[in-house]
Amino acid sequence: MQPLSLRLRLVFVTVAVSGAVLLTFGGVAWWSLYQSRVRALDAELATLGLRMASRSGPNVDFSRQESLLADTFGQQKAANRFFAFVYAGGDTFFKSNRWPETLNPEAYEGGQDYSKEQPPEPIRKQERPNEAGRGRERLRLVFEPRYYTVDSGDHRYRLGVFANDNMRIVLGADLDEFAKDINQVSRAFLVAVPGALLLLAAGAWYLSHRTLRPIEALSQDMESVSAQGLDQRLRVEPLVPELSRIVRAYNGMLERLERSFHQAVRFSANASHELKTPLTIIQGTLERALETSGAESPDSHTYAELLDQVARLRSVLESLLLLSRVDAGKLALSRETVSLSHLCEVWLEDAGLLAEDRGIEIVSEVEPGIEIQADPSLLQVVAHNLLTNALIYNREGGRVECRLSRSSPDTVLWEIANTGEPVPPELRDRVFDRFYRVPRQGQAEGSGLGLSLVREIVKAHEGDIRLTVGEDGLNRFEVRLPATGKESE
Length: 489
Known about the structure:
Layout: H1 6-55, H2 62-78, E1 81-87, E2 92-95, E3 146-152, E4 155-163, E5 167-174, H3 175-178, H4 180-224, H5 241-293, H6 299-327, E6 336-339, H7 340-358, E7 361-366, E8 371-374, H8 376-392, E9 399-408, E10 411-418, H9 450-460, E11 464-469, E12 475-482
Parallel strand pairs: 7-9
Antiparallel strand pairs: 1-2, 1-5, 3-4, 4-5, 6-8, 9-10, 10-12, 11-12
């Protein structure tokens, strides 16, 4: 599974953290608002409850208490308020019309201590001496109120219990109506949160784009650097200080790589040139010795083996010399119109001589009239390496297939396959690496440069090569080259 890009990670982290903060803030705000509203409701209940408890006795006028409820809260709020009177012994002797049937007022006790805030003595007009002591309303001591939040049936209630020595008054309110405003705020918040998160995501995406844009430009500059362009350097300015340090370190690495690369290329080219002369001398000396020794001489076999090894060394040197030119960007192509169909037939005839010794069958399907613009000598190197590879890494009595056709009007497909041991999938790209050889039982001799050289030549011709293993189990090299001209009728 491919990991998420840094930009997406930044967006996800921003949205996740912001969402958590918003939800936490919303939860705390909702709880604070709810508690504030509950405290305000308790204060409203206390305003009436303390007043009713301080003036209520066994002969309380209940109709007056009903009107007091409406006078205190107003008609709209009074519709959601209710009360009940309970004797100190625990018997209920009055419940208002709106008292919920699911609530038992006798189940709720008041406080034990007297309330510090007692209703004040009402101010009355000055009484005449003969009326003193008659009709005065005495205030009663009120206990500390106690509040309850009750879930009963489908409703939620807030109850306040206000008691004096004779009775207790249970005053309540319906919290469902009370919570409508809070729920509207909650719904508005929940609706706004997704929009806010989308805005945050868009902002994080834009900010990450602006932040990562220098890194993307830096990546493009890095990708443009090739083995032939190690002299290129990345721009240091204008970059943020953190990136400038990375660019300077990368430029320093490029400078060291360029110096080492040029040294290796020069060494490879110089060594190839310097070794060609002594090898030519050795080859000439061995050929003369082989001629003078005679066919019956015991040394003739030794001279022949030495000549084979010299030929192998010359082939390796030629490959190294070509690769050094490729690395230096100096591989010159002498392009001309080449009949690839004719050349394939010639190469297959030469390969047939080698195949006879091992009983290998060569099957060819060459479409006539296929022409390309190419360097004939370099195509010879490609054909020699691919056909030799197909013969060497084949089984006794196996088969080599060579097919040439147009895969499209502009592309030529050249396939060379053999019945050797199938190359594992993880090694099919590595066979084109220099000096790499696929581990095989009874490893055949080779330098590990042939397929690497083939790939470079094909690339120089704007082509492509790859190794596949078909359903028939054959190792198949597919070479695609640009076509020119038209297929012959």
